[in-house]
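Running co-folding for pyridoxal-5'-phosphate.
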Amino acid sequence: MIQPANRTQGVKEYYFSVKLKEIAKLNEGAVKVLNLGIGDPDMSPSEDTWEMLKEACAHPKSHGYQSYVGIPALREGFSKWYKTFFNVDLNPDNEILPLLGSKEGVMITSLAYLNEGDEVLIPNPSYPTYTSVTNLLGGKIVSYPLVEENNYHPDFDALEKRDLSKVKIMWVNYPHMPTGARASKELLEKIVAFGLKHKILIVNDNPYSFILNDTPLSIMSIEGAKDCCIELNSLSKSHNMPGWRVGMICGKAEMLEPVLKVKTNMDSGMFYPVQQAAIKALAEDQSWYDSINKVYKIRRDLVFKLMNLIGCSPREDQGGMFVWAAIPKKYKDGYELSDKILKESKVFITPGGIFGDQGDKYIRISLCSSEAGIEEAIERIKEN
Ligand SMILES: Cc1ncc(COP(=O)(O)O)c(C=O)c1O
């Protein structure tokens, strides 16, 4: 047997990859599992986006390799998007780099900035990719707890008491997945001040800014941010385009240079029609976001009902694409409650522990199922 690289031992198969296999097995039975676990937007991108994709396929250049930095019009589209919705000025020539989804940004930013043994501040709970990528690259994880009592904001007093001299990167993500906590301008100011003071690269992962969040905020709008921050964004959630793989990274030109160096050695640009379609999507006005949020609001009310039915009381004030709630005390952890509901009602919800041990006593329900799907889940759970 040829031995895989040692670095693969620091990561496990993604939880959802394992769980989906289990669900596929259960689906061989008569009753199909209702999956309320995964944040995979089920609504369509806008009509204009679709039309542009089709039209651009006929372009003679559509099948060729594309520029590593995207076509200029796409970078301009991102730049206008940031100006319109975040009031941030970004030079489309050198402060924006289109990505194949923001997940790519987690890897290439880490490859560009991390040396083996460097420490990385990672929120607990958080998107598991920050941890797995850090592990793959031999970085040292320094997890910082986000707790409900502190509105899931970092505890800066506790962080200041640590030795921060080896910390290279701090991951930040507001609206926060999985807890739905939002950032205020004051919080972002504190984060930027922290990064500047300790010479830490702050990476704000911002894919949920338009979902159930009235005031989208970019860390790049904070004074001083360009000296220590970069930000990831994505059309996966804001424009219902998760499978299209369109994201971006922005920041000061010299801070993006090492990221670009990595990227040019890893992929060869984004499919031309997808770039053209993304430009259309980025040009949507506020009514686009209102239309998707109208649907998410209705679903959220239903998910609150479902949560109450299983003894959970979610906080009202949550942004993003999920509802997060503490489990009733009678369960050991979210895994126990999730397994029970899957077994008894054939409904899948996500145990909070997959996002870090601070999430052990929580569960997360996605808003990416239709009203009918959530209503059916409620009925199934009522019957058990
Ligand atoms: C916090 C967070 N960041 C990044 C991503 C990756 O999104 P994408 O690569 O589709 O832009 C996700 C996806 O679920 C996420 O929840």
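Result summary
Residues 39, 101-103, 127, 173, 177, 205, 207, 234, 236, 242, 247 surround pyridoxal-5'-phosphate (CB under 6 Å).
The CA atoms of residues 212 and 290 lie 9 Å apart.
Job closed.
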